[in-house]
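Exercise 7. Given the encoded structure of a 140-residue chain, write a plausible sequence.
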């Protein structure tokens, strides 16, 4: 069976959201690598006892990785039935991770909340996934 006939026609938008998230993760990783050089934090050390800003840069990346797998699952489930809505919600979440990181990079952890609008995208795809599950179960 040809995948192009199985997936919704607008699923390509979701694929572009995945690509956008790949760019975001790469950006965050490069920022951690640069901070390791700037603050002389050698591998495999995860956090610095001396440099709060390094820890903030590291946490921005680490926190994103901590929720990324769940986001991918819910993003995919939602996009199978609601591809355009999932793509928009996904783009909101991915964009918010940049805002989150840029706030965190200031060295003031409270500024990471600049990315709080990402919960719209994150919980949005979770709610769409619940809708898909209920439809599959014949609840509605």
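Solution.
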């Amino acid at each position: 069976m040809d995948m192009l006939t199985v997936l919704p026609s607008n699923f390509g938008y979701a694929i572009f959201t995945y690509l956008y998230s790949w760019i975001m993760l790469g950006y965050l990783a490069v920022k951690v690598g640069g901070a390791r050089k700037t603050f002389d934090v050698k591998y495999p050390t995860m956090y610095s006892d001396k440099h709060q800003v390094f820890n903030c840069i590291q946490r921005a990346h680490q926190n994103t990785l901590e929720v990324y797998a769940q986001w991918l699952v819910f993003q995919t489930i939602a996009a199978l039935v609601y591809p355009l809505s999932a793509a928009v919600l996904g783009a909101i979440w991915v964009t918010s991770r940049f805002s989150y990181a840029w706030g965190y990079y200031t060295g003031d952890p409270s500024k990471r909340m600049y990315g709080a609008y990402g919960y719209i995208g994150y919980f949005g795809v979770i709610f769409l996934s619940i809708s898909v599950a209920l439809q599959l179960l014949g609840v509605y």
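Remark. The chain is about 75% helix and 0% strand. Students should compare their own answers with the one above.
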